[in-house]
Amino acid sequence: MTTSKRSERYLNKKAHPLQIGARMCFENPYDKETNPNGYINLGTAENHIVFDLMEKKLKNREKLPKYSLKYGQAFGHPDLLKATAQLYHDHLFIKDVKPEQLVFAAGCGGGALDILFNAVCDEGDSVLIPVPYYGGFTFDLFRSKVKIHPCPNFLQIVKGEVEFDPIKEGIKAVLITTPDNPQGNALTEETLTEYINWSQKYNLHIIFDEIYACSVYKPTSKFTSGMSIKCEKPELVHQAYGMSKDFAMSGWRIGVIFTRNKNVLKISKELSFYSSVSGDTQWILTDFLSDIEWRDNFIKTNKERLYHNYQLLTKIFDDHKIKHLPCDGAFFLMVDLREFLKDQSKQAELDLYNHILKETNVQILPAMQGFEHVVPGFYRICFAVDEEVLTLAGNRIAKAVESFQNLTEKKD
Ligand SMILES: Cc1ncc(COP(=O)(O)O)c(C=O)c1O
């Protein structure tokens, strides 16, 4: 049976390591009582630590109004846009945001980012992304047919220490994640300003993925949005956000676009028709966000629990002398296992990953495979899971790393 020419790309598309690992865990998930030998998934960036708060809040679903059953504004009900603008004002610290500058779509990646790249880039244009970056961008940007230009030294380029002409390279836009995935670093106002000024010098669009904005949990760190930076050409600055992470709602598929560019706004509204958020989901989210006391307590508790889990996991690794990188927010700890590799190659990184998986049944992600890291030996571990599971998995990983070292030492 023939299919369209344009769909051939999908038939030939290879699964990404993020998807392969996640599938394996979905098919055989760990459960203390019913499946103790199943896989513990510390590879998927999902937030499980506030499900109890969500469950309680979901009890008033029976109040769903009739309007949620009807056709409505595909890009977001006015009440939802208003409540979201309030969230941006109070927790993303963007003081001038207006409800009419927001557009809802199904998810941050396949929804908001897909729409934004369709709006600002043509097929074949390149998008500069500093590495390491969230591997899922490979599929989020796939439909818009842009090319990803991985950039290992963006900060040096911006500071003028390395020569790079984005126009010659066919770059049309820059994609920046803050706090980032996989390292969990929140960019400072100074760095954001440098990134924006550099992009504007070449008239490039800059898109901020701020899906972890409300998950900056370290008391000494703070979130600053790229949208709050004053600049000469605000029409070239856009943001993608969503409820998958900060609100632990990855299954509900809620993404948001924020732009001050009138044309990008209009195109986004048109395109959101193809991936809109359902009426019941919109209403429930409006209900959550408009209950300011609940909303604020939820965000505060989420941050406290993230910090607690961060401390728990780093204590296990510190006790075992396993190095890890500093971070500010999101759900990840990047461990530095370079000293345990038999050589500094992608294969050696994979060998240690396979050893950990085999010994522990815990799925984590090697950063070269998953995040285009240029140096082998870093692994991302998601810690927004139940405390008991995290303790078990953290100890298993630490022991597996030690046993790998013994194994390689014996071979030598
Ligand atoms: C930086 C980043 N952007 C986008 C996404 C995808 O979000 P969604 O599930 O809402 O499409 C993720 C998910 O891991 C992410 O880490």
From TrEMBL:
Protein keywords: Aminotransferase, Pyridoxal phosphate, Transferase
Give the residue range of the signal peptide: none
- Which is a GO BP term held by this UniProt record? amino acid metabolic process
SUPFAM superfamilies this protein is in? PLP-dependent transferases
Sequence ranges assigned to domain Aminotransferase class I/classII large in this UniProt record:
63-393
Annotated GO molecular function terms are: pyridoxal phosphate binding; transaminase activity
Q: Which PANTHER family match?
A: AMINOTRANSFERASE CLASS I_CLASSII DOMAIN-CONTAINING PROTEIN (PTHR43795:SF39), BIFUNCTIONAL ASPARTATE AMINOTRANSFERASE AND GLUTAMATE/ASPARTATE-PREPHENATE AMINOTRANSFERASE-RELATED (PTHR43795)
Family that this chain belongs to: Belongs to the class-I pyridoxal-phosphate-dependent aminotransferase family.
Full protein name: Aminotransferase classes i and ii family protein
Q: What organism is the protein native to? A: Anaeramoeba ignava (Anaerobic marine amoeba)
